[in-house]
């Protein structure tokens, strides 16, 4: 089987998570600057088989768009253009940042590491991917 990549897209930086080849476990992969994301994904997919992309879609509690939703939709268009053969799925990302922070606290992560937003972005992508895997089953 090929891996699934989850993307927690932000205008400045993006958290990335990936499954193992059997698609059982979601693991934080990296945080990259958003303008370098497509190049990063091209390098990654050249080295690893990727079945699909899961992109966190920001929504408000009432299911309306947030300020970041148009940016994510624009990125999805770029992603589909760069990887036309690879399916792209949207997945609800509500509360993932706060869940990521709580997870890091419960894991005993140092405060200085929790204040590093790139760590929260990676953890958010991991939560998005694990949630996607759960709903996929």
From TrEMBL:
Belongs to the YqgF HJR family. Keywords: Cytoplasm, Hydrolase, Nuclease, Ribosome biogenesis. Its EC number is 3.1.-.-. InterPro entries: RNaseH-like_sf (IPR012337), YqgF (IPR005227), YqgF/RNaseH-like_dom (IPR006641), YqgF/RNaseH-like_dom_sf (IPR037027). Could be a nuclease involved in processing of the 5'-end of pre-16S rRNA. Residues 2-100 form the YqgF/RNase H-like domain. This is Putative pre-16S rRNA nuclease.
């Amino acid at each position: 089987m090929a891996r699934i990549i989850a993307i927690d897209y932000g205008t400045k930086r993006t958290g990335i998570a990936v499954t193992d080849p059997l698609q059982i476990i979601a693991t934080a992969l990296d945080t990259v600057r958003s303008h370098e994301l497509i190049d990063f994904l091209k390098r990654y997919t050249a080295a690893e088989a990727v079945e699909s992309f899961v992109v966190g879609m920001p929504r408000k509690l009432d299911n309306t768009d947030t300020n970041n939703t148009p940016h994510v939709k624009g990125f999805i268009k770029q992603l589909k253009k760069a990887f036309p053969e690879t399916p792209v799925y949207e997945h609800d990302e509500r509360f993932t940042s706060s869940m990521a922070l709580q997870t890091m606290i419960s894991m005993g992560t140092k405060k200085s590491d929790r204040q590093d937003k790139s760590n929260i972005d990676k953890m958010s992508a991991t939560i998005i991917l694990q949630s996607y895997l759960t709903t996929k089953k």
